[in-house]
Amino acid sequence: MVVRVQREEFDAGAEIAKLRADPRVGAVASFIGVVRDVNENAAVASMTLEHYPGMTEKSLEAIAGQARSRWSVYDILIIHRIGELRPTDPIVLVIATSAHRGDAFAACQFVMDYLKTDAPFWKKEATPEGTRWVEARDSDDSARERWERK
């Protein structure tokens, strides 16, 4: 299990290749989150992500640990970027490996749903009207809650 919080862009293909090298792996599920150019009907010029060093990494490790305890996965990788990002820039990469696709898909989706609600990141968007903090969405809370019913 690897967790990284970084300013630098990541190479999703290279990260997948590293995890896929394990001969037990029969499935690799991945997700890449990307900065959009529009949010809440406003143009977005950039997004700045802030975090609390140390606490953020521990939170990401705990989320990955929960996924590992729920599903039969070999590995989970979470890379989350911080700093100023522009539309089309990748923000987050989640990869889960397992023997079979169901566990890999579920673990990857679980990690993303919990990252959106539980990870201590703060996002500020620059729009033509000025800067604004991005609020949590009800849909993110709903996505997370469904895991608690399982």
Describe it.
A hairpin with a 2-residue loop joins strand 9 and strand 10. Strands 1-6-8-2 form a four-stranded mixed sheet, with helices on both faces. Strands 7-5-9-10 form a four-stranded antiparallel sheet, with no helix packed on it. The protein has a two-stranded antiparallel ribbon with strand order 3-4. The mean pLDDT is about 95. The chain is about 35% helix and about 35% strand. It is globular. It is built from four helices and ten strands. The two termini are about 25 Å apart. By secondary structure, it is an alpha+beta fold.
Looking at this protein, list some descriptive labels.
alpha+beta; four-stranded mixed beta sheet; 4 helices; single chain; 150 residues; four-stranded antiparallel beta sheet
Secondary-structure content class:
alpha+beta
Radius of gyration: 16 Å
Low-confidence stretches: none
- How helix-rich are the residues, as a percent range? 25-40%
Span between termini: 23 Å
How are the strands of the largest sheet arranged?
1-6-8-2
Biggest β-sheet description:
4 strands, mixed
Instruction: Give the rounded overall mean pLDDT.
Output: 95
Q: What oligomeric assembly is this protein in?
A: single chain
